[in-house]
Amino acid sequence: MSETTGGTARITESETRSGIFAGSDPYALARAWMAEAEKTEPNDPTAVALATADAGGLPNVRMVLLKEVEESLSEGGFVFYTNFESAKGGELAENPQAAMVMHWKSLRRQVRVRGPVERVGDAQADAYYASRAYKSRIGAWASAQSRPLSSRASLMADVAGYAARYPINPPRPPHWGGFRIRPVEMEFWADGEFRLHNRFRWRREAPGALAWAVQRLNP
Ligand SMILES: Cc1cc2nc3c(=O)[nH]c(=O)nc-3n(C[C@H](O)[C@H](O)[C@H](O)COP(=O)(O)O)c2cc1C
Ligand SMILES: Cc1ncc(COP(=O)(O)O)c(C=O)c1O
């Protein structure tokens, strides 16, 4: 058992990690793997399957694009953007916890993250919204995401209506913004021969603690 200090976060682990698993900051490790995936994946290297559950515990899952792995040694988060009134928005309002997994076929690796979820602050969400294509910004106004739609024509009429209302610089819709998953657990997985994969789980040493305990897991 060894103890090291990764920035402000202490790490306890049973085995020294090396190669693609090395490092004392799991956010930096996730960013490094994503940077590799950007070179090898044909499209959407930041796509994640995002799992939520409603108040009754029934799970739901869908893809979203991860837009930020925040720079922090100990208290970072995984950020995505969506409609607060969508199915996932409703589930996160009832039960603000989520899990996500990134899987890159080209690298044969996956990263899993679990934790409580909070909304991203207005200034950060405004800045991200402003960086999107104009038509995507208008689409966020027009789409009542996850609710029934009578026809494609009605959606396109709403798109035209919002484009007329906001010919330039549409403000961020009040129903659209970001969520941040604050990990209590992360897992880095890489494919091994004959299914003898390598897995390292990073878990907070105690609820609310900054320190991580890292454990190699059976494949
Ligand atoms: C690769 C990919 C990326 C996506 N990214 C997002 C996203 O970042 N935000 C979003 O709201 N929907 C995104 N979607 C659409 C969602 O998968 C989903 O259809 C939508 O958010 C409604 O989900 P819900 O009804 O569970 O709320 C993406 C779909 C795919 C296939
Ligand atoms: C409905 C929806 N919202 C948001 C996003 C996030 O991506 P972007 O901000 O790059 O449009 C996506 C990506 O596919 C999407 O489908």
Q: How would you name the CATH homologous superfamily? A: Electron Transport, Fmn-binding Protein, Chain A
How many domain modules?
1
Euclidean distance between termini CA atoms: 21 Å
Poorly predicted ranges (pLDDT <50, ≥5 residues)?
Answer: none
EC number: 1.4.3.5
Domain Pyridoxine 5'-phosphate oxidase dimerisation C-terminal: 176-219
Protein name: Pyridoxine/pyridoxamine 5'-phosphate oxidase
Subunit structure: Homodimer.
Summarize the structure.
The chain has 219 residues and is an alpha+beta fold. It is elongated. The two termini are 21 Å apart.
Give your account of this protein's structure:
This protein has one domain (2-133, 175-217): Electron Transport, Fmn-binding Protein, Chain A (Pnp Oxidase, Chain A). Helices cover 26% and strands 36% of the residues. The protein has five helices and eleven strands. A six-stranded antiparallel barrel has the order 3-4-5-8-7-6. A hairpin with a 4-residue loop joins strand 6 and strand 7 (109-119). Helix 4 (134-142) packs across helix 5. The longest helix has 15 residues, at 26-40. The model has no long low-confidence stretch (mean pLDDT 94). The chain binds flavin mononucleotide (FMN) and pyridoxal-5'-phosphate. Flavin mononucleotide binds next to strand 4, strand 5 and helix 2. Its cofactor is FMN.
